Amino acid sequence: MTASLLRLRRAAYSLFFAAVVLSAGAAVVSPALAQGTAPGTATESPTGGNVPGNALGNQADADLWRAIRQGETGSVSIPDAQAGRLIQSEGDNWRAVRNGPVTVYGAWLMLGIIIVIALFFALRGRIRIDAGPAGTTIERFNMLERTAHWITATSFVVLALTGLNILYGRHVLLPILGPDIFAAITLWGKYAHNFLSFAFMLGVVMIFFLWVRHNIPNKKDVKWLAVGGGLFKKGVHPPAGKFNAGQKLIFWSVVLGGVSISLSGLALMFPFEFALFGKTFAFLNIFGLDLPTNLAPIQEMQLSQVWHGVVALVLIAIVIGHIYIGSLGMEGAFEAMGSGQVDLNWAKEHHAEWVAEVRGGGRTQAAE
Predict the structure, then answer these.
(1) How confident is the model at residue 182, as a pLDDT?
(2) Count of C-beta atoms within a 10 Å radius of residue 48
(3) What is the CA radius of gyration of the chain?
(4) pLDDT tens across 293-338, in order?
(5) CA nearest to 280, candidates 258, 256, 304
(6) Phi, psi torsion values for 137, nearest 5 degrees
């Protein structure tokens, strides 16, 4: 048989089978079309947007979408079970809190402390040594103590500036510096923030062990607070030990706040490795609270970020006040952490009990 005859034969078979298939399809579809329905469906027509057979039409199933919006998790075949959650609604809450109360109230807090300090300086002026310089100094802090202080202080300042850039930089610096410079500053600031955080943690541990025994509250602190430490009235100098009540408040704020902000910072540096808030909420529920304890990993991260920002802003406000008193606000205060030697009259006016204790050991020297 020639090749041309074979081709004609195959073409004839193809036409025959095509005709058979079309005929069978027409036999199935024609009755359904005559009744106005599609094959395999009920005879009723769609009503109000709902397709017969309980299929979803052009109206959303409210219960279905409400469950999805509230974070209902479906089943997935991949190892990451969180992929079964189409919408993580807590993300909206996190963004609203971060860009709302945290950012707004944080800015007002810092602006407020600066305004208070400016008013205090305008009304009170610099707090002078009432008796005048004695010409003799006494050792306030040794080298180890000053080292611990400056490690904590310098690392905190860098952490504060880089953290504020993350929170406010795109609103304040980006329009001024432009995207390229701002991006470079933010990137290197993030590196500095991550690595210097360990120096801050070290400093907090050091000052805790060096000074905790001097910062235990006592009844004399109440008397000191009752007269505002003599800061508001010239000639008022309530007795105090090595640390007065105001310094004790700063000490415990830095230690407790430093530990808290370090834990939340570690949770952010090592994502999904720590579940701090679920356990914390479970503990707080012992006291009658009704806080959620079954938190998803992403919720833990969001809570860590918000808490990190809140504690940081509070600490920044406290440290701004501390820096003012320790430098411009009080004569003779900076030398305590500068050379470690303070004027004897300054020490008697602000830490009389500590001076009496130290002078018993004869640790004074003439000022150079």
Answers:
(1) 96
(2) 7
(3) 36
(4) 888 888 899 999 999 999 999 999 999 999 999 999 999 999 999 9
(5) 304
(6) -115, 165
Spell out the alpha helix ranges (H) of the chain.
3-35, 62-69, 90-97, 103-124, 143-172, 174-177, 179-211, 219-226, 245-269, 276-284, 297-326, 335-338, 344-350, 352-359
Closest-CA residue to 165 (of 148, 185, 140, 144): 185
Cα separation, 89 vs 70, in Å, equals 6
pTM, full prediction: 0.77
**Separation of CA 356 from chain center:** 44
Order of all β-strands in the sheet with 136-139: 341-343, 136-139, 364-366
Burial of 9 (0-12, 13-18, 19+ CB in 10 A): exposed
Q: Quick one: residue 54, left, alpha or beta (phi over 0 = left, psi -120 to 50 = alpha)?
A: left
- Give the distance from CA 199 to its chain's centroid: 18
Which tokens sit at 149?
């202080």
Model confidence at 28, in pLDDT bands (50, 70, 90)? very low
Record the tokens describing residue 163, joined without a space. 């953290």
Q: What whole-number distance in Å separates Cα of residue 139 and Cα of residue 16?
A: 111
Token reading at 95: 């963004």
Tokens of 152: 């904590």
The residue assigned the tokens 């808030």 is 277
Phi and psi angles of residue 325, each rounded to the nearest 5 degrees, phi first: -65, -35
Q: For residue 51, is pLDDT > 50?
A: yes
- The SS3 call for residue 137 is strand
Q: How far apart are CA 206 and CA 195, in angstroms?
A: 18
Greater confidence (298 vs 9) lies with: 298
- Whether the CB-CB separation of 265 and 197 falls below 8 Å is answered with yes
Backbone angles phi, psi at 234, to 5 degrees: -65, 140
Q: In whole angstroms, what is the distance from residue 74 CA to residue 105 CA?
A: 38
- Identify the residue with better confidence: 188 or 7: 188
d(CA 268, CA 337): 33
